[in-house]
């Protein structure tokens, strides 16, 4: 039984510190994310006529809302446990949940924008791969938020249930985020082919700018995934809880810590 | 030098078991992967006229080679350490490296097909987001293979160097695979918009089949990622080696295991 206890005391020391490289990686991810939002705005402003709700420009609210909500805010919601690693767990949880609500509401505005635009124009809905992936993202995101809320914020769930659900929550959170990035890439590609047509292959400035925007989207996804998955950057308290839950399980059920 | 020996003897003991659910998840991923390859073939055969090298059908070799090489084989190369968890480490390593070589060679045929087709038709190269992402995948894949080979198969690298590089290798391997899936989705979307145009929005059978193919691509990516990242499905020897390497580091350099 001694290894987890030794591990805890060593981790207790580590909890006070922040890994030296983490702030630089987080700063880099924020630089990428903000550039992404700014460049989406620049693309829509310079080449697509800007944004307005009551006109043909209503469509343009769709990409901007999705990049702000489902890419930038969702990505940052995933990073909350790495960035605020020394704050109280409950505060971090609430911030994580709130960022996801903001992301969802902004994304909903983006969803209404495109459906409303299609209705006014008489265009068909939900025929493209982009729209199928988008609806999948919304359903998964909503279910994940509901289940996450009931397990982690609502006071009913037991400690062991939370520990068992946590890895699934993290996996599906990362997957939904990556699917959002993929869906955004599909949407960008669709917009480029619809708007530029044959001019796309002539290296028009709009096409090059949008390609760079696509690469930035992929890089932001990669940067968030790197910070999220790096083992030695995980919030120490989570590992402590896990170890304690395993010790507790060992004591009560007689299982070995590695057996589950 | 004793820790690696201890590690080997522990590997013998721990290696006897396979997590109960793992084979089902692996079987499911293979079912998805094979359906993906078959459906790509069906799409090209039924709606795109089939495949031939010396004609306009040369283009069709591109999606088929990429789905077989950079999606199915690359995905399976990542799973080798989970599937063959009880085989000798060296055998598994060689299989991992070989699958990646097969994937790269098949993908190169797919790359030649599209460049050759563009040249014969007089089409512009490398203007689209799909092609930019594709070239990025190729460069990263090649570099990852070379660096992976020099660290893990070439006998020069030290034990501690390998341990320090391993997490980076795994992260970049998963990222390149996911970028390959994203690039395939972009290519599929491009083919649909070029070939179907306005008919895409009329729910043509080809469009629906290709959308399902796109969702299957995303699901295969998700299934491989799940098997790869589930903590209790990791090859036991790796965790033990890591721990032992840290202990060894502690003993020799006086660092605490959590300090790096």
Automatic annotation (TrEMBL), chains A, B:
It is a multi-pass membrane protein. Pfam families: Cytochrom_B561. InterPro entries: CYB561/CYBRD1-like, Cyt_b561/ferric_Rdtase_TM. It is found in: Cytoplasmic vesicle, Secretory vesicle, Chromaffin granule membrane. It catalyses: monodehydro-L-ascorbate radical(out) + L-ascorbate(in) = monodehydro-L-ascorbate radical(in) + L-ascorbate(out). It comes from the Eukaryota. One of its GO terms (molecular function) is metal ion binding. Its cofactor is heme b. Residues 28-229 form the Cytochrome b561 domain. The chain crosses the membrane at residues 21-46, 66-84, 96-115, 135-157, 169-188, 208-228. Keywords: Cytoplasmic vesicle, Electron transport, Heme, Iron, Membrane, Metal-binding, Translocase, Transmembrane, Transmembrane helix, Transport. Its main location: membrane. The keyword Transit peptide does not apply. One of its GO terms (cellular component) is chromaffin granule membrane. Transmembrane reductase that uses ascorbate as an electron donor in the cytoplasm and transfers electrons across membranes to reduce monodehydro-L-ascorbate radical in the lumen of secretory vesicles. It is therefore involved the regeneration and homeostasis within secretory vesicles of ascorbate which in turn provides reducing equivalents needed to support the activity of intravesicular enzymes. This is Transmembrane ascorbate-dependent reductase CYB561. The lineage of its organism: Eukaryota, Metazoa, Chordata, Craniata, Vertebrata.
């Amino acid at each position: 039984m001694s290894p987890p206890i030794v591990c805890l005391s060593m981790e207790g020391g580590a909890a006070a510190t922040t890994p030296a490289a983490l702030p630089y990686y987080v700063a880099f991810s924020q630089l990428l994310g903000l550039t992404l939002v700014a460049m989406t705005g620049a693309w829509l402003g310079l080449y697509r006529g800007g944004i307005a709700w009551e006109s043909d420009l209503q469509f343009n609210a769709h990409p901007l809302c999705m990049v702000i909500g489902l890419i930038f805010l969702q990505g940052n919601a995933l990073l909350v446990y790495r960035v605020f690693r020394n704050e109280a767990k409950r505060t971090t949880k609430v911030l994580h949940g709130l960022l996801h609500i903001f992301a969802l509401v902004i994304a909903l505005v983006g969803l209404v924008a495109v459906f409303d635009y299609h209705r006014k124009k008489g265009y068909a809905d939900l025929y493209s791969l982009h729209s199928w992936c988008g609806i999948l993202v919304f359903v998964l995101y909503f279910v994940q938020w509901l289940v996450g809320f009931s397990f982690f914020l609502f006071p009913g769930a037991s400690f062991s249930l939370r520990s068992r659900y946590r890895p699934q929550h993290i996996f599906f959170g990362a997957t939904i985020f990556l699917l959002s990035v993929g869906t955004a890439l599909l949407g960008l590609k669709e917009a480029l082919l619809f708007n530029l047509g044959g001019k796309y292959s002539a290296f028009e400035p709009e096409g090059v700018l949008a390609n760079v925007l696509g690469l930035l989207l992929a890089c932001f996804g990669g940067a968030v995934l790197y910070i999220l998955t790096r083992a030695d950057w995980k919030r120490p308290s989570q590992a402590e809880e896990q170890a304690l839950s395993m010790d507790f399980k060992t004591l009560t059920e007689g299982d070995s810590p590695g057996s589950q």
